[in-house]
Specification:
With 101 residues, the protein is mostly helical.
Length: 101
């Protein structure tokens, strides 16, 4: 005899309903955990992508800094060359004026 009453068909239906409810609850819980695992994996992949992008940005920034430093060094050398050329031109100009006078 079932705990649900004297009607065997009704008892079987109620027992089947109870079993189904337990199985659906378990399946729902498993589905929720699966979705959470998928979300966690997507977040991890997104984070890895951001870390890679950050690494590339840092490398690019370091390259840009090295290029800027090189440009500053070349500009300083060019300024020194221009100063030397101006001095030489002034010296030759003075020599030409003395010889012309």
């Amino acid at each position: 005899m079932s705990i649900w009453g004297k009607n065997p068909a009704g008892s079987a239906a109620l027992e089947l309903g109870a079993i189904t409810t337990v199985l659906v609850a378990g399946a729902q819980e498993a589905h929720i955990r699966g979705l959470e695992a998928i979300q966690a994996e997507e977040n991890a992949r997104a984070w890895d992508g951001l870390e890679c992008a950050l690494g590339r940005s840092r490398a690019s920034a370091a390259d840009a800094l090295a290029l800027a430093r090189s440009a500053v060094t070349r500009a300083q050398a060019a300024e020194a060359d221009v100063a030397a050329l101006r001095k030489a031109v002034a010296s030759r100009d003075a020599l030409i004026r003395r010889l012309s006078a």
